[in-house]
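step 4 of 6: structure.
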Amino acid sequence: MTRFENAFAKGPALVTFITGGDGDTAANLDALVAGGADVIELGMPFTDPMADGDAIQQANIRALGKGTRTKDIFDLATGFRQRHPDVPLVLMGYANPMIARGADWFAAECAKAGVDGVICVDIPPEEDAELGPALRAAGISLIRLATPTTDASRLPAVLEGSSGFLYYVSVAGITGTQTAAQTSIEDAVGRLKAASDIPVAVGFGVRTPEQASAIAKVADGVVVGSAFVDLVKEHGDKAAGPLRELTSALAEAVHSAR
Amino acid sequence: MTDQTPVNRPASPLAADQVNSWRALPDASGHFGQFGGRYVAETLMPLILDLEKEYRKAQDDPAFWSEFDSLMKDFVGRPSPLYYAPRMTEHWREKAPAGKGPKIYFKREELNHTGAHKINNCIGQILLAMRMGKTKIIAETGAGQHGVATATVAARFGLPCTIFMGATDVERQKPNVFRMKLLGAEVVPVTSGAMTLKDAMNDALRHWVANVHDTFYIIGTAAGPHPYPELVRDFQSIIGKETREQMLEKEGRLPDRLVAAVGGGSNAIGLFHPFLDDPDVQMTGIEAGGHGVGTDKHAASLTGGKPGILHGNKTYLLQDEDGQITEAHSISAGLDYPGLGPEHSWLHESGRVDYVPITDGEALEAFQLCCALEGIIPALESAHALAALPQLTAEMDEDQLLVVNVSGRGDKDIFTVAEALDVEL
């Protein structure tokens, strides 16, 4: 079994996101694992995070402002893999930093660092050739996004060549802002699960254990990002404690939802 | 000019063998060679595909183009004149070696309603928006010219309009901000990043993602995800089509060289595209060289950048080795962008069009010369194209014909120019 399969085999999974290079990232990643996160998404900072709301935009600016480079992200991933051999690690970000030295270079670095999957916000299935083949050849899962605007005719294209899990973006919008209605999430997850064998994780706008629990009743995973990033902003280099606390509350809610 | 690219460089023979027509792209997937494409978040993909479908229908609909033409004529004031610039011609002929110094013509896009070529594209896109049943308009703007043009067509058709503008630009372009407000638009100051055009585009995209059901994004240049580069080019191609007819009428033949400034590149592609398959017509695109392409303060993405992905398309971008986008600089706010339209990247790599940088200082000189010699205050963007004249006129023969696209008028730039010349107003 892959790390993803393991993580989703135990029931609904908590997927957590923080931005690489923002705060004490290595300690923060450890805190997420200690709090009970099942899958870790590590954000690759980018100067122009077009799909992100204010919280993650600011985290990108803080990370880049501290001089965070692509090499630092892979160092964080390598260290994480050594400390946590079984927890799936996903790099999430935008196309340009991923292809800047060539997709093959990026995929090879991911494999070397022990990264399990990649989410690229601005490479839709239509442009898969840019990154998908390189990742698949290196054994890295390409995790695609489905959204409320992804209709039945597009869904097969989204699923084709994606693996690990499917990330359902529950609102048409940017990260950290609105929350979707529970009924619309239930409908969408039902539709996606009928079309695919891979787990479906739901994110965007999820902040509280109550929301997470409700989503975990219907989905295979719940993604929380901006709420963690806000804590890093608030506590700076001493965010590990608060991160662990929030993770525990969310993990408890997600794992006991069914 | 800071670059010594030979003016009469022939198109690369390799590229010429590979393409039957220079005007056949983008391909079905929206690419110009390796450039272009649709690099957007999944939320936007269905809308982008819808837009393409609707544009294909409009392309074949005579009623669409007849409404476009009618608005071009009576609302925009087209055709814009192709004007022989006698004193400019004489000035450079005197400085050129014997037998050199071509006849200089200006394509006078600055005489359009709202003072620039931007309106051509806005008319086309708002007609598409209405065909698609969209009820709200958004746009990004740098200096405010595209914002004013968008607010203008939104007012003309009675659609609510929101303009995203970097907070820095809101501060330094107050007259245009007020114009937009007079035209009924809401101007949203963008405070992310360096608070300029690139950030305004990011925030317009963010807003669009959250409002795709009822909102149409009028992108201001021939860039962004497919089909924007194609449709903006098609709407702006009226510039080149008119130039072609007007030159045939005046001189009985085609021009020998076309020159236009390239920020995103919509005025340049509009002038160039109808001539791309005429092998004897040479073309020069002018990039903003800022303080010089050897410094870190310029906006010459072809000269100083490399291919990458931003704002929905693959194109040349100013970036560091990690793929982080670097800030552009130009005295001209309309050229102050770290990328350019994907078709220009392709025309550059294939060798069909020459691209050269012009510095802030060279543009300022050309700006003043044009005022003094021709009684025309050009936009600082257009002044970059005019600044290519010293080199081009020295290399072109006396009996040759040169067309400069005067893409906009310079009233908006007088404060910037005064400051650069240390003049207190």
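step 5 of 6: annotate
 - The CA atoms of residues 193 and 333 of chain B lie 16 Å apart.
 - Chain B has two domains: 13-25+77-115+232-420, 38-74+118-231.
step 6 of 6: archive
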